[in-house]
């Protein structure tokens, strides 16, 4: 008890919100491995309220005195924390001994801590400098909700073997959905604060938004993330600019906004946000950079038709496995190879929600194949001595058809080939027109394949 409340007094005196938040952590620091165990054993259910009230309000050794309402608010918070620590100790002891841990009880106890902290800001005048406490409590609320749902799912799977009409998926994310509602309450608590910006809880808004994004993505409820963005736009005039927040908050926020635009197929906005996240991301955050590139690479493929280099992917073995086979096939115009690489990585692409976007990369592979046919056609005879050479711009449809049939390993008739060529022209991957009566494609002399230098 002395360690927890000694740190509480120390960090409260200097206004260190991040230090104060660590006194509410459900994990003992490495330097004090028995911290939580000793804290829980320092009192009991009968005396906990009285003991904590003494430590926070009446201890004469404290360097400051808290107002009664604020002090009582913190007493309620630490009583709830003590109860949650007890449930965590029980769950961890059960797991270590091979028994089933009750993470459901841990979640409910941690939810009560979240409610007490929320009440403290609403009714007990907790200072805005303490908002890192919301970060810690919100973070582990989500963690314990996931553990509780995983435990419930395993129990339901056993029950389902005896009940044919039981649907084990119906409530598999019950606690995580509840955690999302609790996090949304914290979000509104920060967003609706009317204090001046210097003393506003709005400085905690982006950390909570990022927790909500993670939760909604885990629940596969991307549409709810859009509601968060709408709320932010509505309050934008009363909000500190994003650039004023910690870089970690900025990077995470821009990453999730980029992914949301990506899933809406707004690849220009997605590329903009993901690029900003990439630029701001710490150079040693390999895992975060890998996540950003997972969506930024397909964006670049569609917006600029550029492929990732081996140097870019070298620190990320997973991304090499995902993207290098596709990149090689796109570069060579190998349509059948592209299809095979897409099928080989299908499970991973679908899991990461990038399959449909990468599938569109086949158009770029086809463009590169058609460009090879165009280049192989050579140059027209010079009309005057010394005149610069001009590539032949009239290419028989049959030549394109032969290349496509070889590249895709499928025989195609002229109508199918013309349809593919028309689509390429419509998508601005080729410039020219099809002269059906003569069976040729007339390509532009000023850049038959835009962006390729040919």
UniProtKB/TrEMBL annotation:
InterPro entries with a match to the protein in the record: Csn12-like, PCI_dom, WH-like_DNA-bd_sf
PROSITE patterns xref list: PCI
Entries under Gene3D superfamilies matching the protein: Winged helix-like DNA-binding domain superfamily/Winged helix DNA-binding domain
Residues covered by the PCI domain: 251-448
Listed GO MF terms: double-stranded DNA binding; RNA binding
Sequence similarity: Belongs to the CSN12 family.
UniProt name for this protein: Protein CSN12 homolog
Native source organism of the sequence: Glarea lozoyensis (strain ATCC 20868 / MF5171)
Lineage: Eukaryota, Fungi, Dikarya, Ascomycota, Pezizomycotina
């Amino acid at each position: 008890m002395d360690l927890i409340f000694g740190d509480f007094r120390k960090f409260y005196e200097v206004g260190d919100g991040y230090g104060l938040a660590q006194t509410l952590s459900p994990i003992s620091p490495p330097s004090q491995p028995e911290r939580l165990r000793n804290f829980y054993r320092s009192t009991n259910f009968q005396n906990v309220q009285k003991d904590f009230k003494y430590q926070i309000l009446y201890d004469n050794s404290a360097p400051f005195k808290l107002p009664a309402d604020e002090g009582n608010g913190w007493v309620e918070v630490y009583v709830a924390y003590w109860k949650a620590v007890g449930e965590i100790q029980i769950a961890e002891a059960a797991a270590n001994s091979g028994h089933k841990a009750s993470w459901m009880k841990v979640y409910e106890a941690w939810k009560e801590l979240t409610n007490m902290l929320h009440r403290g800001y609403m009714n007990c005048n907790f200072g805005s400098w303490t908002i890192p406490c919301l970060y810690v409590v919100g973070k582990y609320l989500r963690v314990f909700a996931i553990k509780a749902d995983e435990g419930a799912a395993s129990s339901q799977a056993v029950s389902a073997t005896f009940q044919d009409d039981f649907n084990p998926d119906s409530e598999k994310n019950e606690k995580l959905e509840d955690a999302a509602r609790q996090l949304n309450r914290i979000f509104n608590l920060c967003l609706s604060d009317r204090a001046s910006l210097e003393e506003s809880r709005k400085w905690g808004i982006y950390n909570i938004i990022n927790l909500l994004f993670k939760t909604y993505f885990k629940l596969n409820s991307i549409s709810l993330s859009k509601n968060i963005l709408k709320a932010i736009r509505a309050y934008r005039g009363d909000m500190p600019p994003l650039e004023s927040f910690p870089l970690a908050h900025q990077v995470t926020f821009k990453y999730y906004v980029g992914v949301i635009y990506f899933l809406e197929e707004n690849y220009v906005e997605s590329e903009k946000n993901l690029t900003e996240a990439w630029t701001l991301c710490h150079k040693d955050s390999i895992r975060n950079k890998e996540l950003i590139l997972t969506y930024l690479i397909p964006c670049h493929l569609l917006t600029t038709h550029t492929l990732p280099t081996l140097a870019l992917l070298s620190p990320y073995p997973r991304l090499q496995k995902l993207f290098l086979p596709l990149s090689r096939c796109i570069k060579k115009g190998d349509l059948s190879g592209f299809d095979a690489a897409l099928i080989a990585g299908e499970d991973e692409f679908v899991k990461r929600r990038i399959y449909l976007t990468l599938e569109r990369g086949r158009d770029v592979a086809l463009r590169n194949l058609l460009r090879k046919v165009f280049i192989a056609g050579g140059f027209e005879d010079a009309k005057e001595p010394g005149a610069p050479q001009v590539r032949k711009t009239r290419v028989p449809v049959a030549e394109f058809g032969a290349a496509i049939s070889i590249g895709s390993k499928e025989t195609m008739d002229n109508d199918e080939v013309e349809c593919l060529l028309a689509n390429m022209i419509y998508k601005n991957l080729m410039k020219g027109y099809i002269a059906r009566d003569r069976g040729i494609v007339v390509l532009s002399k000023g850049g038959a394949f835009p962006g390729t230098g040919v």
